[in-house]
Amino acid sequence: MEPMTMLVLAFQLLALFSIAGALLIYLICKVREDNEICTAEAQPSRVVLVTSADTALGLQLCTHLANKGCRVFAGMKEAQDSLPAKLLCGWMKIREYSEDPISGTIIPMRLDVTREDVLREATVAMGAHLNADERGIAAVINTSGSVFRGRVESQDVQQWEHMLKTNILGTLRVAKAFVGFLRPTRGRLLYLGGTNGGARTNSTNSSGDGLVAFNASRVAVDKCAEELRKELQPYGVSVVALDTCGMTAESLYKAPVAQTVSANAGAPTQYTADVLSPTALQVIERALWDFTPQQRYTLLSHNKYQFTLPCRSSLRIQRPAVAVANEASATQSV
């Protein structure tokens, strides 16, 4: 074989080995990237959206989850100048300078389930706050809703429309807006359900108490969630109902309650969110983090031989530092 022919063959073999080596390196890198992605997906997200922190229940959930190390998006109709926004800001400052600072955080965000434009803005804002390695959020807790009590023959029709628009359409709008954040993490959509899908009527918010339209909307919400569960199950998204049997309708959506704790003039106003007991909060944690979530969790025990004391969770703003230090051991702040 001539020397020139041997040289050409050598260069061809060198080129083939180079291509094979480059392809092998590419495949190794690809496998590593896939493993990193799988590892990132396996790590549970600690980001939670509470759709309405305008209520005492929503505020209590936001602060409780932040205490547990979650990054909480707190939806509210006015995220800056409203009372809930100021209460959350004051609570964060108090905890920031306390001896035991929280490991989580709360991000107030404008959100109104009755307005499509505000929901679109909320999804954009949430995406901007997520880190580069975060592909979604762990859960959405829909605490939005409204209740108006009144007899059918005397109640304003606009109140019916508001309840139906907020409770029923709001449930569907929340799912439509945020399910894209739940699919990548196989997250969960939690909502405040009725009494066992509307099957029981002997609870404190039963019919006959001026809640015909409200109870009808709660049954419809349960049915919406049932159909959403079927539709989202193939994507790994779980739809979970928080059974509110035993809780009054007004307690679900009441605003933070002002309390007078001092007769001195100029004393700061204190607000309390006294809605969920510690046991109920633990139930919500199970609904969020159970490896295989149930379809329905009951917030209150129905055992007639047991009773649950309400949790004293207080929201305080403009509190003196001495008062905070004196009461830190006796009262859990929200």
UniProtKB/TrEMBL annotation:
Signal peptide: 1-22
Keyword Methyltransferase: no
InterPro entries cross-referenced by the UniProt entry: NAD(P)-bd_dom_sf, SDR_fam
Gene Ontology annotations of biological process type: steroid metabolic process
Entry annotated with the keyword Signal: yes
Gene3D superfamilies cross-referenced by the UniProt entry: NAD(P)-binding Rossmann-like Domain (3.40.50.720)
Gene this protein is translated from: Dwil\GK10120
Species per Swiss-Prot/TrEMBL record: Drosophila willistoni
Keywords of this entry: Signal
Example of a GO MF term: oxidoreductase activity
One Pfam match: adh_short
Protein name: Uncharacterized protein
Annotated TM spans: none
